[in-house]
Batch of 2 targets.
Target 1
Amino acid sequence: MPLSVAVSGASGYAGGEILRLLAAHPDVEIRTVTAHSNAGQPLVDHQPHLRSLRHLTLQPSTPEVLAGHDIVFLALPHGQSGQYTDALAETSLVIDAGADHRLTSSADWDAFYGGEFHEPWTYGVPELLIGDGAKQRGKLVGASRIAAPGCNASTVALSLAPGVAAGVIDASDIVSVLAVGPSGAGKSLKTNLLAAEILGSANPYAIGGTHRHIPEIRQALRGAGAAGDIRISFTPVLVPMSRGILATSTAPIADGVTDAQIREAWESAYADETFVQLLPEGSFPRTADVTGASTALMGLAIDRAAGRVVVVTAVDNLAKGTAGAAIQSMNIALGLAETTGLTVNGVAP
Ligand SMILES: NC(=O)c1ccc[n+]([C@@H]2O[C@H](COP(=O)([O-])OP(=O)(O)OC[C@H]3O[C@@H](n4cnc5c(N)ncnc54)[C@H](OP(=O)(O)O)[C@@H]3O)[C@@H](O)[C@H]2O)c1
């Protein structure tokens, strides 16, 4: 008997991608989809690509509508998930795509988000190193409350965690510059996301330590075993592609470390992973290679002249960055095969 699922925020980008992937998942039945201002309308009016779900109507996102399912996905603006906590107390698995349950530090929450702080849930990045060679996957087994990651945050954390865990890079001087597609900012109308502002242009934003994913990256790298201060200069740049992240992250090479030791850190971290793949030496990923895929594709360079390791990682912000991570985590929590319903193959060109 399939598990019943409700997806809240189903008219949005993250909710739409969760639905697209769940529609191909053999163990679940999408029973309920909910929205806010668009409640009452057919789902396909807002997600016309979801043809197999054309029978569904968006219901209001009330606690009563969401209760009574085996699994509930929340894909709402941050600060909106907490209102469902009590109503979903009996729900065996709740997965939040928003930021509300990601951070363990209330001080970080206050500094970067503000509003009520909610308890942290199990972080939904299975491949993330968490010290002593262990991975986050172990914590997801049997989890009942999962916080899916921020797309930029998980991309950078996966990029650098192997180097931090092995002690081959210095985490006190990380620089990450990301080319990002505008779907990462959601579907609501904003002037800076209009086609006229974006097409033919590359537009930086949240510059100078203000981006909300910074504390999440620091938290993840601390968990991976970073010794001492973690300092990161983080600059996202909006580019004209609807989805995708190409993150270039660099950090100083630790003293006395050989090139072989550096490469070995990444190779051993991800050799057995399906959805995080390190490319051969000299190869680097493109965003199109992971469009629609649950894959984080990574290239590693050692720049001895600059004394820095360079990691370039491509991720689909809506797939591996959100919905793919959420469903992979769901599979682990429920004891299903981890890759069920997910693909490693992108859509290129
Ligand atoms: N986009 C990404 O790449 C990405 C990646 C990782 C995580 N996330 C996270 O996923 C969440 C959703 O992001 P998104 O990009 O999908 O945003 P979005 O496209 O703007 O969609 C927001 C959804 O939330 C609903 N909503 C708005 N206000 C609400 C309220 N007060 N109460 C209940 N529902 C409300 C909207 O319904 P109506 O349309 O009916 O108003 C819509 O379904 C965010 O927390 C975001 O940080 C997004």
Note: Residues 252 and 306 are 8 Å apart (CA to CA).
Target 2
Amino acid sequence: MSKTELVTAPRPLRLPDGRPAGEAWSLDPAITHLNHGSFGAVPLAAQERQGRFRAEMERAPVVWFPTLPQRIAAARVEIAAFLGVAADDLALVPNASAGISAVYAALPRRRGGEIIVTDHGYGAVTMGAERLARRWGGRVRTARVPLDADEEQAYEAVAAELGDATDLIVVDHITSATARRMPVTRIGAEARRRGVPLLVDGAHAPGLIAAPPADVPCDFWVGNLHKWGCAPRGTAALVARGPLRDQLHPLIDSWGAAEPYPDRFDQQGTIDATSYLAAPTSLDFIERTWGWDTARRYMTDLADYAEQVVGAAFAELTGDTRPVDVGMPVPGMRLVRLPDGLADDRVPADRLRDRVAQELGVEAAFTSFRGVAYMRLSAHVYNTAADYEHFADACVPVLGEWARAAAQPVEVSP
Ligand SMILES: Cc1ncc(COP(=O)(O)O)c(C=O)c1O
């Protein structure tokens, strides 16, 4: 879509029996849900499947647990097919953080101990890279990628930081705060040429991108199934190819330790792994009901509409009518600019999220990049145009009041 074209709202998706798509979830209808991206939302079909697995586990735990590794291996096959990778390349982990931590724990320093990250990286992942670099006696080098960088510019910004001392590159497939893609395929090709391992943080990619790790030449790729894939939390995939993968061990070191990768990840002591087992139900539910391609098209069209409606409402407050250009956009997420003073850093952004939930009944995401605050809009299949229209009409004016109040000079008594 050209950013100047006026977008019409897509027709809401329906279930096969004609009910609104949202009725397949248990989201509270009294709350407006505009932030699928942070923690996802699980359809009832998968909640029920997970419940049935739990009931089976509770009926006879001693029978259940010995069967768990085989059950997890079977779930891996289905999840690998969804992600377009070989089941032998994929291990299941509780979340993206766990997969990334397993990679950080496994890698040896080989050259100068430098780790390349970008300034769009997820904070917790970048902090982990900093700790690893300290352990290696090296350092983190941060590639500064302009928000609106296209593929070439983003690639050049990362490539400029690579050198003989580089031991690892960590780059997002889809960034969290800025809701944009990074050119991971090109970065992967260059990493291969230099013999440097690449870790792709694809936390947001499953569901938003078809078969996200399939064509990315990387040693390690991690993605959350419980975000856009709507799997029960926490379910994430760690995909590892190449010789380094044999060094990967789960964070919970258990009886599988002597098994090869990825089988050793199927045994992690006594845990409730029912989320892994029910994850394929979520993926299948969306495929059978609408098809993932249709779902992604709907999410994109609705996100474009959301950006237009909510962006226009904020523009009335800020006077800035330019849409936010993120260079390489994704389906399902858009940024709109917030008025100054509301949330220009992570802590005030989180405080604003909590206040909006408590006082306005809206689940929303607020982010910041280089001191500029944004609302990150998410659109999944259960969202409709009315969600964003409600926010624009009823909530944006209130945020305007909050911004004005925050800008009032504080009176100091002499
Ligand atoms: C880009 C990115 N990386 C990593 C994570 C961490 O995911 P989790 O909390 O599921 O480990 C997130 C979560 O939002 C993310 O957006």
Note: The radius of gyration is 22 Å.
